[in-house]
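lol ok so funny story. i was supposed to be doing the assay writeup but got distracted and ended up predicting the structure for this chain instead. priorities right. anyway since i did it might as well share w the group, maybe its usefull for someone
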Amino acid sequence: MRTTAKRLAAVAGGLVMAAGALVFGTASTAQAATCKGGASYETFSTGTDQAEHSFGPYYTTSRCSDINLKLTSWGNANPLTVRVCFYPTSGGTTCNSWKEFYKSSDLNTWRVIATDVKDGTKFRISMDLASNTFKGYLAA
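and the output, tada:
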């Protein structure tokens, strides 16, 4: 009798854990869909000089905890380097490291370009390339 009760308790505990994992996985998927579902369509034209080009300002929202970029139209550059520069209310500028995008593998693919960003943070996207136009979605 005791052995049967222990087995039933173990099975029940396993089912509760499995159900919790299913609910957790669903919430994460729903959050990502909401974040990227609210993305804005952007055009980034880098002009003709070889300088770093800055686009924005943009502001993060409560929909996303990360800043995500999906390029859908690409100039002739390969690779493209992208970074995010933040403008805190206290002043100054802080930029993250450059991330490389490759036309063959990153076109129409979401990439995280900054993580764990507070809601309402002012930022700009920087691209280091000349004579190209890039189009795509920005979710923040």
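The helical segments are 2-37, 103-106. The radius of gyration is 21 Å.
back to the writeup now i swear
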